[in-house]
Amino acid sequence: MSGALNLVNLFHNETNPVVLEPGETLFKAGDAGDAMYVVLEGEVEMTIHRRVVEVVRPGGLLGEMALVEKLPRVATAVAKTKARLATISERRFTFLVQNHPFFALHVMRVLSQRLRSMDNMIND
Amino acid sequence: MSGALNLVNLFHNETNPVVLEPGETLFKAGDAGDAMYVVLEGEVEMTIHRRVVEVVRPGGLLGEMALVEKLPRVATAVAKTKARLATISERRFTFLVQNHPFFALHVMRVLSQRLRSMDNMIND
Fold first, then answer.
1. CB count, 10 Å around CB of B17?
2. Is the model's pLDDT at A2 over the cut of 70?
3. What's the pLDDT tens digit per position in B64-109?
4. A interface toward B at CB cutoff 8 Å?
5. N or C: which end of chain B has fewer CB within 10 A?
6. Whole-number CA gyration radius for chain A
7. What CA–CA distance (Å, rounded) separates B101 from B1?
8. Residue A123 has pLDDT above 80, yes or no
9. Alpha-carbon gap, residue B98 to B12, rounded angstroms
10. In DSSP terms, which residues pair with A45 in a beta bridge?
11. Which residues on chain A are in Cβ contact (under 8 Å) with B74?
12. pLDDT, tens digit, 9 for 90 and up, residues B48-62
């Protein structure tokens, strides 16, 4: 279970993607979160209190914290370029975690990497 | 998949737990990490650059970041009290993620909660 998972490949057949124009908001901090997203094309900027914490590019995840914890959004997500995203509802997320251990591991890695970079940010 | 998972129950039959005396170090920041741990009894203090970032209590996880990312330990783990821990090797972790989706979801939740509390810490 060590190979990197390319989520763009996993979701390339997405029939009903979310399409965002540059500057369009996907969600705001404080919103209820009932889905996470995989960026298929373009870039989405994540900000917390107006500070850019991440730019999510194709293959990247966003919105998974609210879904995993069933809590409001921590960050605001705004398209930096035109972007296309796959929506992973709670039901779909549950299916993926149950049937694709690689997906679960990938989500853990993404969370862990964010935590590590935040630890570095705090201590630098 | 919404119920909280009690890891103490999942590992209560642990036959070969790690036992730490108060003040004993489990691992140090920078160490290679080939296992994560579940606290079964006692408390383990996690520090990053001498700052206490978390006290892990029974049912809590530690060391999962190094295991998930295959990178060195970020934090130092020292027993605050006498403690008993179950060791989850990489092989066991892979088995758990593949066969117990609740376990995978639990690890995601723990990571997400840490990220959220760190976001709050930074912005407060």
1. 16
2. no
3. 999 999 999 999 999 999 999 999 999 999 999 999 889 999 999 9
4. 1-2, 48-49, 64-65, 68-71, 74-75, 94, 97-98, 101, 104-105, 107-109, 111-116, 118-119, 121-123
5. C
6. 14
7. 8
8. no
9. 20
10. A55, A78
11. 115-116, 119
12. 988 898 999 999 999
* Alpha carbon distance B93, B11 (integer Å): 13
**Count of CB atoms situated within 10 Å of the CB of A70:** 12
Please determine, for the modelled complex, whether the ipTM score is greater than 0.95: no
DSSP string spanning A23-60?
Answer: T-EEE-TTS---EEEEEEES-EEEEETTEEEEEE-TT-
| DSSP per-residue string spanning B8-70 | HHHTTT-SS-EEE-TT-EEE-TTS---EEEEEEES-EEEEETTEEEEEE-TT-EESHHHHHHT
Interchain CB distance below 8 Å, B104 and A119 = no
Q: Output the pLDDT for position A29.
A: 95
B2 contacts A112? CB cut-off 8 A: no
Tokens coding A52: 């850019």
- CA distance readout (Å), A124 to B48, B53, B120: 12, 16, 18
Partnered with residue A52 across adjacent β-strands are: A47
Q: How far apart are CA A4 and CA A22, in angstroms?
A: 29
In the structure encoding, which two tokens stand for residue A103, read together? 């997906």
Asked if pLDDT for residue A28 goes beyond 90, the answer is yes
